[in-house]
Amino acid sequence: MRAAAPGVARLLHIEASPRGSESFSARIAAAFVDEYRHSHPQDEVEQLRLFEHALPEFDAEAAAQKMQHISLLMRGEPGVAPVGKWAGVITEIERLKAADKVLISTPMWNFSLPYRLKHYLDVILQPGLTFYVNRRGEYVGKMGGKPLQLIIASGSAYAPGFPRADGGTKTDFLQAYLEHVARWMDFGDIRVIRVQPTAHPVPGEVTALLQGRIEEARAAARSF
Fold it and tell me: What are the sequence ranges of the domains in the chain?
């Protein structure tokens, strides 16, 4: 992955909705990116649309390479060479590491994350590459404290706290999981914009909600 020029930061936008401009999370993220380009004209922006991007399949070959990689690390060796399926894993990790700032926009699917976003995370979360285990057996992230902006859309409204429950029927595992994984990888400034409830029965209320979150996203982009 080519490094950004001196004085230029790279923003990686990971889009986890397949709905394009019909997606609430994608529309708010588009406003964020538009404002970011305007307020940071020297920076680079890369968009990774997970439903259009060919992620490496983490199949039997990749799993075997991961086990070999772990075995080599435990013996103090560098790890598996980037060949076969592991080459695709390394490519995605290098893309993430090359970014100075990361934006993830995603809807909630079935109280959790879309399967393509989970696929992506399963690809990049690799020992010795995005985290390592120190001599005390503690997991230590390797993202260097870079900032992360989350934009999350959900049909229903969820209150703060974990589990985020409403009458025992609605629990949000999405935000808690993403924040946990991000801290685990050592992302530093983790910010969240929630758009909810997008399934509001009154169309005018949804329009007002969307506009409010777009303005919030634009303000967030200016200080990101």
Answer: 10-222
For domain 10-222, the CATH architecture is 3-Layer(aba) Sandwich (3.40)
Whole-angstrom distance, CA of residue 185 vs CA of residue 200: 35
What is the distance between the alpha carbons of residues 11 and 3, in angstroms, rounded to a whole number?
12
Reduced to 3 states (helix: H, G, I; strand: E, B; else coil), residue 12 is strand
Q: Which of 166-175, 178-187, 197-206 has the lowest mean pLDDT?
A: 166-175
87-111 in b/e form (b: 16+ CB < 10 A) is ebbbebbebbbebbbbbbbbbbbee
Q: Which stretches of the chain are DSSP H helices?
A: 24-39, 60-74, 85-98, 115-124, 174-184, 203-222
Look up the pTM and report it.
Answer: 0.91
pLDDT in tens, 16-45: 999 999 999 999 999 999 999 999 999 999
> In DSSP terms, which residues pair with 171 in a beta bridge?
165
Contact between 4 and 10 under an 8 Å Cβ cutoff? The reply is: yes
Please name which of 154, 140, 156, 141 lies closest in space to residue 192, comparing C-alpha atoms: 154
Residues 179-207: b if buried by 16+ CB within 10 A, e if exposed: bebbeebbbeeeeebbbbebebeeeeebe
Residues 109-140: pLDDT tens digits? Answer: 998 999 999 999 999 999 999 999 999 999 99
Residue 32 token pair: 């964020």
Report the DSSP beta bridge partners of residue 102: 12, 148
